[in-house]
Amino acid sequence: MIKRWWHFFRNYFSFTPGEERGLIVLFVLIILVCLLPWMFRISNPVPFVPGISWEKLSVDSFHAGHEDSAGHLSGRMISSPGPAKEKFCFDPNTVSFYEMKKLGFPRLAINSLLRYRQKGGRFFRKEEVKKIYGIDSLFYHDIEPYIKISVPEKNNSSFPVIPLRKDKVELNKADSTDLVALPGIGPVLASRILRYRERLGGFYSIDQLYEVHGLSHEVIQRIRPLLILDTTLIQPVYINKDPERTIASHPYISVYQSKAIVSYRRLMGQFKSENDLRASRIFPDSIEQKIIPYIRY
To answer: Residue 114 has what pLDDT?
Structure first.
């Protein structure tokens, strides 16, 4: 009986030399995968910061590393702050780094608020604190009762007061301070507008602001009367001499269209006018009307 079971076991559970080598390799790979997280923590230790947990530090580091790619995210990137550690009244125009830390501000929000003040920004109403990058509605609700904004009798502060603008802003020359002074524009939207302007080479129409991610129709309608455009400041695309990579970097021109432009130059010669561009059929009509203001021959 025992011999029968032994033969049964050998017939169904025996391995060839090749299968045995494969099992050994598989076991080694399993062990390596199990050890990888431990090896990663050893080679990339998380710095110790007093008063901040490993999970909180990891979240702040993740958001800080992805701050520049916000043009592709919807809404506002938000840290996950816990409840305020201490509760006391503060003025967002004068509160210090250590006071914000005691109040439980996320690291990202602290850095954003300090940068906003360094660029001349000032808070006039409590609600403006919600514009700061890294502050979500839950955390704002927690600190809102303690926000006390003092109104100076004279402008003797160490940073300039920037009221909402009444004069016109030239959109192709404006910096972040000019844009933040517009109603409905905070530091995040101002940064997105500037980045998109740089990619375009300048705006030729106020309606191009609808292409800026996160900029709503209502805000654009509010700021439209405050904006002017100098189209002579546009940085053009020299379609007959710019290299393929430079042409493809424009938001309205795809990689395939830039290749087609370079191929046309090589086979047919230079573009001489808009008629040549239309005849090439490289761009559909909807894109052609948008790209023509940027093209130079």
So the answer is: 86
Q: Which of 180, 206, 233 is the last residue of a domain?
A: 233
**In this structure, are 207 and 254 located in the same domain?**
no
Share of the chain above pLDDT 70, in %: 74
Which is it for the CA torsion 255, 259, 264, 266, positive or negative?
Answer: positive
Integer Cα distance of 291 and 29 in angstroms:
53
Q: Determine the Cα–Cα distance for residues 26 and 205; give it in Å rounded to an integer.
A: 61
How many C-beta atoms lie closer than 10 Å to residue 236's C-beta? 14
Cβ contacts of 84 within 8 Å, gap of 6 or more: 103, 104, 142, 143, 146
Tens digits of per-residue pLDDT, 45-87? 544 444 444 444 444 444 444 444 444 433 343 344 444 467 8
Same domain, 241 and 276: yes
Range of the structural domain that residue 245 is part of: 237-296
- At residue 202, does pLDDT exceed 80? yes
Matching residue, tokens 């990619």 = 199
Domain boundary among 110, 137, 163: 163
pLDDT computed for residue 87 by the predictor = 84
**Ramachandran angles phi, psi of 270, nearest 5°:** -75, 155
Is 150 among the domain residues?
yes
